[in-house]
Amino acid sequence: MTAALDIQALARQIRAARGLRHKRDIDAVVARLGLTSRHAAVPVGDDCAAIPDGEGHLLFAIEGFLDSFVAADPYFAGYCGIMVNLSDVAAMGGRPLAVVDALWSRDAAAADPVLAGLSDAAALYGVPVVGGHTNTRAEAGNLAVAVLGRAGPRLLTSFDAAPGDDLVAAIDLRGRFRDPHPYWDASTSAPGERLRGDLALLPGLAEDGLCRAAKDISMAGVVGTALMLLECSNVGGVIDLGPIPRPEHVPLARWLIAFPSFGYLLSVRPDRTPAVLERFAERGIASARIGHLDASRIARVRGSAGDEAVVWDFMASPLIGCSQDGTGAGR
User: Fold this and answer.
1) Overall pTM surpassing 0.85 (yes/no)
2) Average pLDDT score over residue span 16-27
């Protein structure tokens, strides 16, 4: 299928995607707050803030949701408040401890489906909601959820990918789109035991030293998330489109901007790639080597016919303005 695609047009589509354009906002915020040096165990810009604590790390993350999303699918917005935060913790090799939420709604009736989503996800994933802020007299509905987690001494970060590493993608394909949105839901109908076990794969990889860097696939999609990982680590590379795990009935162009409920990119030493792929296979999660990292600081995509297109040149322009040495790329 990829052979028939215009690879240059596809690269333009990835750059123009709404999810990736939203990530461009990070650069200005990082600069305005002066977050350009190492303030914690890893530089600002990772999936969680990591704070050294005894023999391990405390992990903090927060997710805010577009008011249009909360209005269109309030139950799933509440559910995602738990799910995406736990993905951030797992992406750094951690396990969640608790979450808090901040909810604004017009009235109690409007708040109820959001709270139902939060409650159901908390039960399935086995993480408690321990507090937060509620306002049921607001003019519009808004939601933000924060998580506290813990990781051991070996973190997975966005800043430790290295030239020569394989780029591995792992995505749970046992789901469906929540049309018309780009959200691939492999979570709400899954048993909680499976969801908890799947998330535990990531800290297991960290603790066993099989992986050095990872990032959960966000609204930026598979390639967009890879761009953030590459920028943070000051590397480049080529992403092969053909091997990306994908449901058979979903066109590639749509899948590249999808937001999967369970999806991760990992930077793995080639000698450890088979063991990493085997761990995902054991739990029925599709995974594959989808690329190779190099020192070019240029991200390219490659079709099945071998044609390539540059998606981002980090030497010319930053994407999120975060990099391995704690300074904004291109600054």
Assistant:
1) yes
2) 71
Q: Quick one: which of 47, 142, 63, 132 has its CA closest to 104?
A: 142
Instruction: Tell me which residue has tokens 């990292």.
Output: 293
35-72 pLDDT per residue, tens: 654 555 567 778 899 999 988 999 999 999 988 899 99
- Specify the fold of 2-34+157-313: Phosphoribosyl-aminoimidazole Synthetase; Chain A, domain 2 (3.90.650)
The token duo for 302 is 């490659």
Domain 49-151 belongs in CATH node 3.20.20.70: no
Give span(s): CATH 3.90.650.10, the chain: 2-34+157-313
